[in-house]
Amino acid sequence: MSSSPSKRAAPAVSEVRNFIDGEYRSSSGGKTFDNVNPCTGALNGKVHEATSEDVDAAVRAARAALYGPWGKMSDAERGEILHRVADGIDARFEEFLEAECADTGKPHGIASHIDIPRGAANFRVFADAVKNFATEAFQMATPDGKGAFNIAVRKPKGVIAVISPWNLPLLLMTWKVGPALACGNTVVVKPSEETPTTTSLLGEVMNEAGVPPGVFNVVNGFGADSAGAFLTEHKGVDAITFTGETRTGEIITRAAAKGLRDVSMECGGKNPALVFADCDLEKAIEGTLRSAFANCGQVCLGTERVYVERPIFDEFVARLAEEAGKFKLGLPQDADTDMGPLVSHEHQRKVLSYYQLAVEEGAQVVLGGGVPDMPPELAGGAWVQPTIWTGLADDARVNREEIFGPCCHVRPFDTEDEAIALANDTDYGLAAAIWTENTSRALRVSTAINCGIAWVNSWFLRDLRTAFGGAKESGMGREGGEHSLEFYTEMQNVCIKI
Ligand code: NAD
What we know:
This protein is an alpha/beta fold. The protein folds into 2 domains: about 15-265 and about 475-495, Aldehyde Dehydrogenase, Chain A, domain 1 (3-Layer(aba) Sandwich), CATH 3.40.605.10; about 270-465, Aldehyde Dehydrogenase, Chain A, domain 2. It is built from 17 helices and 23 strands. It has helices spanning about 5-10, 50-65, 70, 75-90, 95-105, 110-130, 170-180, 195-210, 225-230, 245-255, 280-295, 310-325, 345-360, 395-400, 415-425, 440-450, 480-485; strands at about 15, 20, 25, 30-35, 45-50, 135-140, 150-155, 160-165, 185-190, 215-220, 240-245, 260-265, 270-275, 305-310, 365, 385-390, 405-415, 430, 430-435, 455, 470, 475, 490-495. Strands 15-16-17-14-13-19-20 form a 7-stranded mixed beta sheet, sandwiched between helices. A 6-stranded mixed beta sheet has the order 10-9-8-11-12-22, sandwiched between helices. A hairpin with a 6-residue loop joins strand 4 (about 30-35) and strand 5 (about 45-50). The longest helix has 22 residues, at about 110-130. It is globular, with a radius of gyration of 24 Å. The structure holds nicotinamide-adenine-dinucleotide. Nicotinamide-adenine-dinucleotide (NAD) binds next to helix 9 and helix 10.
């Protein structure tokens, strides 16, 4: 039997400290900020904000650990420890699940199938991948006829700053920390100020798994004039890996220019879905329901622009609205919850401002458009209705700017060329979804869209060996499989004259 929602919605207030050199440390400046539960508005706990001295201590600890036992281990030895980290996450699955859901408000159904298992998998996959990561060798002729050999070796890049967002906190942070550590680097992580708890908890797992002190460090805080800026501007950082908004990515890239530090940028999107009349309509509707509304629309790969071939436009819109209208909004722990709240009141204000703008820009509101009625114990949460619009101009701001909420605009098209042009009419280039049963069309259209990831008759189907990243303003570089290992290593060529 489940307990009452109000009881379960108010976890014990806890403190999240920084994790530096293998131990939890309070803010040296004595500063804390609130971690708020987005379902209720209640306080989850206090977070210790890292000062520049704390960040400096974390970077120094990471530097020292590079030259300690971690740097001397073989890939296989490090891999064994990283497998233990993954096992440690599995062993404390419930704790990670509760913490992730309390910070984000997302349903258990999502976090238990995606966030937490992927958090563990990111360590296993890269611990194994690094063992098979080849280098290169070239034999060359020389004027004396004896020749030379060129052998490339890969080395860790050094101290890596990891800046992560709030939408998939454990998953996206470990997506960087897993390969960085597998390659022998050390890391200082700055999780999102909205969702610090699972990153902090990982410190305990690292200690239990035998990761030496200083290899994994966590500093909490905000961006400008806080831990994010202190870390990315720190001279002791060798490379920066970032996932978040494009504008933040630009600021961090500027910080990285000083000292020519390498950057990996996974940024925003305004992703299209193209639904052709020859699609399997059931699949297309089910897929678009997920791509537009999963995680309350807070997925970088999510669909915000849906283009539907005219003969099936009316039916598609009606069916999508009918199904989205059935979503049950509620607490993470309730088995029938389809959608949680947005991550914060600040984000709720942003999303609602777009809901209002859509009306001002002339949209027809097919579904939602506001704040849902919630029971009294959830009234303080950051809830918004799933929302569908039609009728907006292609240059409407709602059609051009990333909203990052549970909403999409649906527009008809008449030809394949028009659909491709509409899909590409954006500053972003992260992902696209194409729904058609015609394989030739699927190949033609998917390759004509200027984006990093195109799905045909699916969405969010991820093989972790494949390239992941965005074109245009959606990012720089690729993660996944060998692409991650490439970023987290420095290649050195050794030329040996015979
Ligand atoms: P955000 O850019 O506001 O914050 C991301 C991180 O950067 C946070 O940890 C934040 O504290 C930090 N930060 C902010 N300003 C900084 C500064 N000046 N210096 C250093 N660090 C700073 O992004 P968000 O709101 O947390 O996440 C949502 C965004 O992330 C959306 O745009 C979404 O599309 C994007 N995203 C992209 C991907 C991808 O793989 N491409 C994945 C998930 C989310």
